[in-house]
């Protein structure tokens, strides 16, 4: 389980010669870091907030980030599992016509799974960016830079995951699914850029 490794061990595996972990797991890790940092800042703000409504909002966001952090952490391993399933599908026998048909069906199924793993990360990370912005609105000068770091990590997760999704679906035979996932992935990237830019513009005001 990659999520059980130390940071140093994970980095060494990522830098290694094996095919995984790679961009999918790294993007999920980036999203998990964004959630962790946002959770931390929200808790800090809540502990100093005298307004009960504002405090409750930060506590709710903290809980959401905690749940997302756990989900993104699981995605680090899910991406590798999906790759391994695809690799196994390519190793299936193709001696008979039935073998070839079963192999092809399993490959297509595994490709879609491999594409959806990072797609899910991108989708969740885009939604997370809205909560990061809400935390920024209550952050002080000492913590706003941490909020920006969280937003940048989230944006990186969206871009990386979306690009990986678009790359994985190239082998799908269903053109309808390819078109749909490509459009949604492009939309995620545009939204992520807009949300990060909105935060930076808001800070400069």
UniProtKB/TrEMBL annotation:
- Where is coiled-coil annotated? 37-78
Q: Which SUPFAM superfamilies match?
A: Methenyltetrahydrofolate cyclohydrolase-like (SSF101262)
Q: Where is the Cyclodeaminase/cyclohydrolase domain?
A: 6-184
Q: Which UniProt keywords apply?
A: Coiled coil
Domain of life here? Answer: Bacteria
Carries keyword Hydrolase?
no
Q: Carries keyword Coiled coil? A: yes
GO molecular function, a single term: catalytic activity
The family database entries (Pfam families) matched by this protein are listed as: FTCD_C (PF04961)
Tell me the protein's name. Answer: Formiminotetrahydrofolate cyclodeaminase
């Amino acid at each position: 389980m990659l999520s059980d490794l130390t940071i140093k061990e994970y980095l060494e595996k990522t830098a290694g010669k094996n095919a995984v972990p790679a961009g999918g797991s790294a993007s999920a890790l980036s999203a998990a870091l964004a959630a962790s940092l946002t959770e931390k800042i929200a808790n800090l703000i809540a502990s100093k907030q005298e307004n009960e409504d504002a405090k409750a909002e930060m506590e709710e966001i903290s809980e959401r980030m905690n749940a997302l952090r756990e989900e993104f952490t699981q995605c680090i391993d899910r991406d590798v599992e999906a790759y391994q399933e695809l690799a196994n599908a390519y190793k299936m026998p193709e001696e008979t016509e039935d073998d070839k048909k079963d192999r092809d069906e399993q490959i297509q199924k595994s490709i879609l799974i491999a594409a959806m793993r990072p797609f899910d990360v991108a989708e969740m990370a885009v939604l997370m960016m809205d909560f990061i912005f809400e935390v920024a609105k209550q952050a002080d000068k000492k913590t706003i830079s941490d909020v920006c770091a969280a937003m940048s990590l989230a944006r990186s997760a969206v871009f990386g995951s979306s690009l990986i999704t678009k790359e994985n679906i190239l082998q799908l035979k269903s053109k309808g699914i390819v078109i749909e996932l490509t459009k949604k992935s492009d939309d995620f990237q545009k939204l992520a850029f807009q949300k990060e830019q909105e935060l930076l513009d808001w800070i400069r005001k």
